[in-house]
Amino acid sequence: MVQLPPEVLSAIASYATPRDLIVLSRTSKGLQRAAEPRIYEHMVLRDAQSIFIGCHALLARDAYRGSYVKRLYIFQDPRRVTGRNNFTNASPQFWLVIQHALIKTANLEHLILHDPTLSHSWILDHEDIKFQLRDAQLGLPWDEPMVSFLQTQHKLLSLATEDAREDGPLYPLAPNALPVLESYSGPLLVVAELLGCPLVRLQMRADDDTAPLIPTIVSDLGRIMKTLRNLCILGLPEELSLEIVHLVTTAVFAPHLRYLGILPLPAVHLEWHHLYRCLMKLPALTLLELDVTHLQPRPSEVLQRMILFDLRVYCPTLQAVVFWMAQHRFHWYCRNGQWTNVHQQARSQVQEALWRT
Q1: What is the pTM of this model?
Q2: What positions does the domain F-box occupy (predicted)?
Q3: Residue 2 above 70 pLDDT?
Q4: Are 54 and 66 spatial neighbours (Cβ–Cβ below 8 Å)?
């Protein structure tokens, strides 16, 4: 087996499942060399122990395996948390090992890195980190090391971040940074730093403190962001819903907007028609998400269908409508000319990804 040509061994490894690749790599040195690029191409490290072992495996033997890694996911899986297997209280040395591993992954394209303490963004700010990411989901604060790192990423297409620290400033991003960024998910205040990016899909989160700023941010987007096609706002107060819809309909991206959410449906029934008339000015809209949690009584499926038909009268391009009631999600869609819905429970607006479609 060890005398087979490398291309034959690579072909054998290409048919193996991820689990079988581990076994295959132990059968001979030739198959180990053929299997390792696929084993390390996609690494998912979900607890302190796997992170420590995985990073040391990348660093071993002059870190030759680092060049294999294209996707690296580092996070704490709650199901794996134990007293010892928990990196919430990990030492700086633990995070230094992760930084050294990142330095060696020169071909990395996709990175998920979540720090439950939001205090180790410094690991990204190193002059020897050479990779150019296409997708980054960073559970790290928007601070100076984060901004310094992002300004080196010229191929980044998709980004998710956390907010700045409560006791720290919001560091500005250079005007020419992230020149091809198309998708962002994160706090409202950070969106203000990304107005120079060609965003296509945007999910911004507001809380009680930042919600009053939503009209200002949407107004700024409406003047600048011609590329925007999907806009999702989490934490939008009901009293701002109509104002935001009006701003959206007057935005430069209004003629091409395909997705809009998550809008609280006004509690006053007479105001629904103001919303409907605004939707007439969105000729490309195909997907709408509404929050009806605050309505009393909450709309039954019969009433949801009635609202859906009213929406279709004013916005005939709609192909799907989602109604949110707390953690209940009713997804209405048209199939073969008939409207039907899927009811899902225990859902989270933050984790839904319709805005990415």
Answers
A1: 0.92
A2: 1-43
A3: no
A4: no
